[in-house]
Structures are given as structure tokens and as C-alpha cells.
Design goal:
Layout lengths: L1 H45 L4 E8 L4 H8 L1 H7 L3 E8 L2 H9 L5 E4 L1 H9 L4 E8 L5 E6 L14 E4 L4 H12 L8 E4 L2 H9 L5 E5 L2 H7 L3 E5 L9 E6 H6 L1 H20 L1 H12 L3 H10 L9 H16 L16 H7 L1
Parallel strand pairs: 1-2, 6-7, 6-8
Antiparallel strand pairs: 3-10, 4-10, 5-8, 5-9
């Protein structure tokens, strides 16, 4: 009897141990499964959603052209689960229209377009300085027009893309020599329309930037009557659409990183850069080389001098009635992206 009772107790104890072991195993598997599911869920939550970034080239010879040709921006953005949609504009005003409709996220603007855009409360911020612009703009005239100095422009027709850096430059030069835009006949033309008008003598002067200035003067048919000699700053700004930048600060920094990469490559590979620009813009390589020699691109923070120049330009545009709202330029400069790049 005792033997049977002992046997029964032994079997019962073994059964309990077996049951605990099974339940323990099931609990472990269930816990591991939940842990793995949780990890997968967290990974999905932190993974960047794919995004297409709209990058605009704003005329001229810019390192962004090199970055596009080399695929550097696509390579950098791929690390952040993003790709690039490129667009190109002749000048700032049409670019601003696309930015307002969220078709431009990252680009650069001359002082005129930057200030007019901020005055119109368009949603973008200034993220870096690309050039002080002192070599950017010129007033050129055909040599057969008999216009030798700025004062000779009184009563003459002048082609200019309104709202651009060239427009601001013209207003400053006219003011410097005792004239105003009321003393001349301004003809609003984008560069592709101003070029044939200038070459066929339909306008007396053209306020423009490179490569047009160097190309026209190199032909021997045009002369500069006001340009780098005036020492007028016309800062060029890198910009980012505000909502895009706030949601994707790492992409803004990546954009600046690639811009710097393109500058460094251009400086180290001048001959190849010259040929690339010449092929893309259909300009003589000699002209391109002269341009690159005279004006080196940069990427840096605004200095107080350049902030003051932008503020003075905004006040000039306001007094001339070209913009309607006062601009405090410094309030729109965000330096955190550039600072992040240097860390």
C-alpha cells in the first residue's frame, strides 16, 4: 500500500515538472516572439519614409551642375532614403513661383529674388552664403551705341530681368551716379530674350551676369560700363523651403555637403570642370576658364557686412516700390544646417 502511494506521488511530481517545463518553454517562445515583433515594429517606426527632393538650378555656372552630372546628390540622398528631381530656371522670379507651389525644396537665389520673395512672405529660409556677388553683375552696351559711362544711359532703353540681382545692381548703380529708374526705359526681359534683343541692337544696354557678360565682351562687340569696379555686393544665398527644411534637416545638411564637395572637386579638377560647363552651356571653353579664374564659388555663413548689404538692398527695393513689405533680412537666416556640416 505504501509502495503504491509512493509510486502515485512520484508520478504526480514528474507530471507537474513536465507541465511546468512545457509551459515555461511556451512562455519563452511567446516572449521571444513578442520581443522580435516589438523590434520589427520599432525598426519600421524609425525608418525614414522615402521622399523625392526637388532641387532647382538657377542659371549661370554653378557647382550644382557638376553635382548633377556626377550624381553626387543622388548618392548622398540615397543614404537617407531620398532621391532627386532636378529643374532649371533662367532667373530667380520664375523659380520663386515654383517654390510657392512646393515644386522647389532646395536651390539658390540672387539678392533681388531673395528679398522680393521674403517680402512676399514666400515660405523659404536662407541657409548659407554662396558668394558676395561683387563680381556677379554688369551693365554692358554695344560698342556702336556711343555709350561710354553710366550717365550716358539717361533716356536709353535697358534690358533687365526684373526682380533679379541684375535689377538691384542697376538701381544701385543709377543711384550712385545721380540717376533713377525713371531716367531710363527699363525693358523687362529674361536672359534668353534679352540676348537677341541686345545683339540685334533693339536695346541700348543690358544688365546681366555671367556667362553672358564675358561671352558678349569676348566677342569684341560689347563693353562693360559698370561692373566689378563698382564694388557693389550682391550676395547669393542657398535657400530651403521652410516646411521641407523643418521636416528634413538632415537632407538640407546633405545638400550643403554635396555643394561643398562640388566646389572642392572643381578647384582640384579645373580643366575637367571647364569642359563640363562648356559642354552643358554650349559656351567656348576659353570663356568658361576666364569665368572660373575670376570668380571662385564658396559656401559659408553670412558676415555682418553681407547682412547689411542685403538689408540696404531691401530698403532700396521698398523705396522704389518694387516690394510692398519691409524685410528684416537677418531674421530669415538659419545657420544651424551649416553649423551641423562643420561638426
Amino acid at each position: 500500500m505504501k509502495r503504491n502511494k509512493l509510486r502515485t506521488l512520484t508520478i504526480t511530481a514528474l507530471s507537474v515538472i513536465a507541465l511546468v517545463t512545457v509551459l515555461g518553454g511556451c512562455g519563452s517562445k511567446d516572449s521571444n516572439a513578442k520581443s522580435e515583433a516589438g523590434s520589427a515594429s520599432n525598426a519600421g517606426a524609425t525608418e525614414r519614409p522615402h521622399i523625392t527632393v526637388n532641387v532647382a538650378i538657377n542659371g549661370g555656372l554653378t557647382p550644382l551642375l557638376l553635382a548633377r552630372e556626377k550624381g553626387w546628390l543622388e548618392e548622398e540622398f540615397k543614404k537617407l532614403n531620398a532621391d532627386v528631381s532636378w529643374s532649371e530656371f533662367q532667373s530667380g522670379p520664375p523659380l520663386l513661383e515654383s517654390l510657392a507651389s512646393k515644386r522647389v525644396d532646395l536651390s539658390f537665389l540672387g539678392d533681388g529674388a531673395t528679398i522680393s520673395g521674403l517680402s512676399a512672405n514666400l515660405p523659404f529660409e536662407v541657409i548659407a552664403l554662396l558668394s558676395d556677388g561683387k563680381l556677379s553683375n554688369s551693365i554692358i552696351t554695344p560698342k556702336d551705341k556711343g555709350i561710354a559711362k553710366v550717365e550716358d544711359l539717361k533716356g536709353k532703353s535697358i534690358a533687365v530681368a526684373k526682380g533679379t540681382t541684375a535689377h538691384v545692381f542697376l538701381l544701385k548703380v543709377l543711384e550712385k551716379y545721380g540717376l533713377s529708374d525713371k531716367d531710363v526705359n527699363l525693358i523687362a526681359l529674361q536672359p534668353e530674350d534679352a540676348l537677341p534683343a541686345f545683339e540685334t541692337g533693339k536695346v541700348d544696354a543690358w544688365v546681366t551676369w555671367d556667362p553672358y557678360t564675358t561671352k558678349e565682351t569676348a566677342s569684341g562687340k560689347a563693353a562693360v560700363i559698370a561692373g566689378a569696379n563698382e564694388g557693389i555686393a550682391a550676395p547669393v544665398s542657398a535657400i530651403a523651403r521652410t516646411d521641407f527644411a523643418k521636416s528634413n534637416p538632415e537632407l538640407v545638411t546633405a545638400f550643403l555637403k554635396v555643394y561643398k564637395q562640388a566646389i572642392d572637386w572643381q578647384n582640384a579638377n579645373t580643366d575637367e570642370a571647364v569642359q563640363t560647363y562648356a559642354d552643358l552651356k554650349k559656351i567656348d571653353a576659353g570663356v568658361v576658364k576666364a569665368l572660373l579664374t575670376s570668380s571662385a564659388p564658396s559656401l559659408r555663413a553670412y558676415s555682418q557686412e553681407e547682412l547689411d548689404a542685403q538689408q540696404k538692398s531691401s530698403e532700396l527695393l521698398l523705396s522704389n516700390g518694387f516690394i510692398k513689405n519691409k524685410v528684416s533680412f537677418q531674421d530669415h537666416v538659419v545657420s544651424s544646417y551649416l553649423e551641423k556640416l562643420s561638426q
